[in-house]
Amino acid sequence: MKFGPVPVGEAQGAVLAHSVALEKGRLRKGAVLSAADMAALQAVGLAEVIVARLDPGDLGENAAAERIAAALVPDAAAAGLRVTKPFTGRVNLIAEAPGVAVLDVAAITALNHVHPMITLATVPAFQQMEAGGMVATIKIIAYAVPGADVERAAALAAGAIRMAGVVHRSAGLVVTQIPGGPDDTKGIASIRARVEALGMDLAEVRTVPHRAAALAEALGGVRGDIAMILTDSATSDVDDVAPSAVRHAGGRVERFGMPVDPGNLLFIGDIGARPVIGLPGCARSPALNGADWVLSRVACGIAVSGEDIAGMGVGGLLKEIPTRPQPRAGRKA
Questions:
Q1: Number of folded domains in the chain?
Q2: How is residue 261 annotated by DSSP?
Q3: What is the 8-class DSSP label of residue 9?
Q4: Rounded to an integer, what is the distance from CA 256 to the centroid of its chain?
Q5: Average pLDDT over residues 228-242
Q6: What is the CATH number of the domain that holds 13?
Q7: Average confidence score pLDDT of the chain
Q8: Is 321 part of a structural domain of the chain?
Q9: Residues 195 and 145 in one domain
Q10: Distance between alpha carbon 85 and the CA centroid of its chain, in Å?
Q11: Do 150 and 276 belong together in one domain?
């Protein structure tokens, strides 16, 4: 692509680089100049205009963005995405339903190395999305880019973005109580909101004493595709009440503890085919915490291993929750 000033009389067919005020209205940047446009430019006394001219083999910004979008999402319905029409070199990928964004990070990075004018920005991998949320945007910065580079970028990132939709339709919550403990009404409401934001139902809430045997029995009977546990007293060891109850119920604990703050005291496991999530106390707050990252993946049928949780530490320092009893930084005197 060639870019720069040319005499107005030689600008027909070129792309206008900067908007120009006319006697009536405005000729906007990105317009492909016609004979009538040239006459209008001359009528306001312009002798030259800054334009972009495509070289042989170049693709215009909209065609380039559309080509890359087609490669990224070859089947929009299967990927759970809506692909917008190109406009000013941009195509957006929009989530059609709640779920998490599944990204081939290496492929996306490779695409962004091909040509600096070919760009793809996305939400973080496994970001929870609501219907209508923007998952990614393809932006061609220049008015045109070499077609060969567009094809290379498209090949590198083919099928690199999709949504994982929710596969578990319900969850059950078991809350333990200690005599004189806090009222968990607001905490349960926060957890219900998390579940419903994923398009799921909170099928049942059971309250039991803070004892392993009582909790194990409740876990065996509580309704829901996913079982969640909220303990009145924070889980502080893999042999504490809640993890022990999972094992007593015939299940296993995959990992206790996560490098996400708030959210350190989460644990995850399963009882047979049903996932079990031991929620940290911060799940009582509606603010983002580590439980959100785990619940959204599990709800979408994405296995969460101990190794996966270990990898959440980079970016895992989340915003402080003002109401929690032991903030990271001590209170000022």
A1: 3
A2: B
A3: G
A4: 25
A5: 96
A6: 3.90.105.10
A7: 95
A8: no
A9: no
A10: 21
A11: no
If asked whether residues 157 and 191 sit together in one domain, one would say no
Element (H, E) at 52: strand 48-53
Residue linked to tokens 């219900």:
192
Return the closest-CA partner of residue 215 out of 256, 271, 143, 144.
271
- pLDDT-derived band at 168, boundaries 50, 70, 90: very high
DSSP 130-173: -TT-EEEEEEE-SSEEEHHHHHHHHHHTTT-EEEEEP---EEEE
| Per-residue tokens: 204 | 């049942």
* Torsion sign, CA atoms 307, 313, 314, 318: positive
Distance (Å, rounded) from C-alpha 1 to C-alpha 89?
15
For residue 326, tell me if it sits in a domain. no
Q: List strand residue ranges (DSSP E) for 236-320, in order.
A: 252-256, 267-271, 274-278
The pairing of beta strand 226-230 with beta strand 274-278: parallel
DSSP 8-state class, residue 87: B
Two tokens at 73? 């999402």
pLDDT in tens, 193-204: 999 999 999 999
**What pLDDT is recorded for position 32?**
92
pLDDT at 330 (0 to 100): 62
Distance set, CA 122 to CA 20, 74, 159, 233 (Å): 33, 17, 14, 39
Q: Is 260 found in the same domain as 211?
A: yes
User: Residue 319 domain-assigned?
Assistant: no
What contacts 168, CB < 8 A, 6 or more positions away?
Answer: 200, 225, 226, 275, 298, 299, 301
> Which CATH number characterizes residue 219's domain?
3.40.980.10
Q: For residue 185, what are the domain limits?
A: 170-310
pLDDT, tens digit (0-9, with 9 covering 90-100), for 53-103: 999 999 999 999 999 999 999 999 999 999 999 999 999 999 999 999 999
For every residue of 174-215, DSSP letters joined together read EEEE-TTPPP-HHHHHHHHHHHHHTT-EEEEEEEEES-HHHH
Which one, of 115, 107, 168, lies nearest residue 136 by Cα?
107
Residues 6+ apart with CB under 8 A from 132: 94, 95
Looking at the structure, do residues 121 and 209 belong to the same domain, yes or no?
Answer: no
